[in-house]
Amino acid sequence: xxxxxxxxSKCSKTVVPTRESIQELLNKGMVAIDDNKMQSSSMKLAKxxxxxxxxxxxxxxxFEREQCNLExxxxxxxxxxxxxxxxxxxxxxxxxxxxxxxxxxxxLAQAELxxxxxxxxxKSDV
Length: 126
Fold this sequence. Notes:
The protein is an all-alpha fold. It has a domain at 19-88. The chain is built from two helices and no strands. The chain has helices at 2-15, 19-125. The chain is rod-shaped and about 155 Å long.
């Protein structure tokens, strides 16, 4: 009977784990689960952080693009006004030039008239 109780005692140790070994396995499993949860949370946090960074970057680029568009539009408007002003000044200078030309022709005609009048006056006196 001793050999049978020894055998069953040996079998029960290998088949049925002790309370400490069960607790140890449970603790290891809980630690592994906690580690996995922490890794998962950490990965989710990193993902959200990257999304936030990307969103901020995209918003900054959109803002900069809008600023560039506004600056371009303002530059186009200023250029247009300056071009109109320069064209007006050119037209004014052309009109002044034409007026001076006509005045010059008029003075030349008056001078020619005076020459003729002098030459006619001199012939009639002679």
